[in-house]
Specification:
7 helices, 212 residues, extended, mainly alpha
Length: 212
């Protein structure tokens, strides 16, 4: 029939045209490259885990160095906005300006502490200070500034916890490590003899010698 296209691939002359659903699936889900070499991360040694727990890596240090000046700027902005929006004297919600000044010093001190901890690569303490700073800004009802610090502080704490768990598994301190590695936990050396359902026979009483 003229004008029609025959896609009969019985003899293998013409390639089969993929359907619309197959093209859409390949566009959304990218197939794996067979030539790509898959590499698995090698397990860390105990010394490497101890060093990773003690010192933060470059990425964590960079985030802390960036968050410290941002925290100082956010503290100034929040306190300035609170002072400008403070009700006049005599209003029930009026706050003394000296309290805002003290709060400014606290926020600046926490931002400086973030900078020092980032320079010292102290992951755990940096996460604690950052989470406390975010919680303080959150309680001042500036959620948009407080939530990022809370999230990053929780991220530091989660990374510290995971490294501690990895070290426990590597050193064998975790009781779950034996089952994860494929070996069973050590059995008890105490021996309990098996008991049967039958009762042991009673010993006959000794009547002694009989007199004739």
């Amino acid at each position: 029939m003229p004008g029609s296209r025959d896609f009969d691939n019985s003899e293998g002359d013409l390639p089969t045209r993929p359907s619309f659903s197959e093209r859409l699936r390949k566009a959304i889900v990218k197939p794996a490259d067979p030539d790509a070499v898959t590499t698995t991360e090698a397990p860390r040694s105990v010394e490497e885990l101890q060093a990773a727990i003690k010192w933060a890596d470059d990425k964590e240090r960079l985030i802390g160095l960036f968050a410290a000046p941002v925290a100082a700027a956010v503290g100034f902005l929040v306190i300035t906005a609170l002072i400008d929006n403070d009700p006049p004297v005599g209003h029930p919600r009026h706050v003394n300006v000296s309290i805002y000044h003290d709060l400014t010093l606290v926020l600046l001190g926490m931002s400086m502490l973030m900078l020092v901890l980032a320079l010292m690569r102290k992951r755990l303490f940096l996460g604690i200070v950052m989470a406390l700073y975010g919680l303080g800004i959150f309680n001042l009802h500036y959620w948009g500034f407080g939530v990022p610090f809370l999230l990053f502080g929780a991220w530091y704490l989660v990374r510290a916890y995971r490294l501690q768990q990895s070290l426990k598994l590597a050193t064998g301190d975790d009781p779950r490590g034996a089952t994860r590695n494929g070996s069973s936990p050590p059995s008890s050396k105490r021996y309990t003899p098996p008991t049967s359902g039958r009762r042991p026979p009673r010993a006959k009483p000794d009547k002694g010698p009989t007199s004739g």
